[in-house]
Amino acid sequence: MKIPSNRSYLTGRELAYVAETLTSGAVSSDGRHTRECSRLLESRFGIPKVLMTPSCSSALEIAASLCGLGPGDEVILPSFTFVSTANAFVRLGARPVFVDIRRDTLNLDETKIERAVTARTRAVFVVHYAGTGCEMDAVMAVARRHNLLVVEDAAQGVDAFYKGRALGSVGHLGAYSFHHTKNYSCGEGGALCVNSPALAERAEIIRDKGTNRGKFLRGEVDKYTWVDVGSSHIPSEVACALLRAQLEAVAEITVRRRRVCELYDQHLRPLARRGLLRLPHAPEGCLTNGHIYYVTLPDGETRDALLTHLNANGVAASSHYVPLHDSPMGRRFGYRKGDLPVTEEMSARILRLPVYPDLTEMEQAYVVRQVSKFLHGAKVGDAKRERLLAAGTR
Question: pTM for the complete prediction?
Fold first, then answer.
């Protein structure tokens, strides 16, 4: 078999919406489909204002500007994330303060945030890895004590929930991704979730090149002009036409992806009981969206060998992030290997398995057979088994 890591799911309405947009000639920005995408996200997830963007990176950049970040400011975030999380504010001159992650969720360890706060800290950027929510109650409590803004990088968290609240709707600001690797995709796209009403007007201005064009289009001013620093963070109407079809099918897509993850859990649990691998963990109150299914291996050597075995047998498994603190840019900020031991350990041990709505049970069975075949032949010491059997500890 040849099983890709991801495959986009089409609902059947994408072509009609795109064709309608092209034939009508209404391809300019912020058209009917863009507005409908915003409305769908606002209504489903209880977000006061959603602004569609060309990418999650764009949404994070707007969020960083809304936080008023600049040279000398500090932002707390995990190192185990995509580069866009840090780039959003580093480009403004702010400094990343990397905090270690939890072993059980791979999310920012909320117990370590407060000790990283200094007089220069202005914001916390949390990342909901694999659609599993961070402990947002604890994060928001620290933010209130120190007057910090909280930005949720919910690139992987669309239609996932923390204690009944949608990821992206809890912090002051949130960012979604609709990249082709995500659950709901238009190839490349994003959205800014504005949960603090005080930030809504300026968010709209920054998104539209620093102008008050939005007020002009609503008839609130007779002409629009340059009023703030901004950029072109507005997506194509054609992309939003495609995305609208995806967002109308969010519930269907999520159910199918969750089912794939549930089947992996079911079939891989015997290996987990033997301490050969560890399954993903979602704390109580966290409802995931089936974005990523990963297993944790006893060590990096076993992970790399299993990855090679799966790829050689047609299964497009993968590792994930190179920790940002251990990257060339991270070293420019003075970070070194060994600074975040849990991040370094876990990034070397996780392995992502294929997940997409159309993944069949036969294909999943093949993936599981290949994983089982390798691990049954691998030599895993008793100490390493015990470490995996102690799943759930930080």
Answer: 0.95
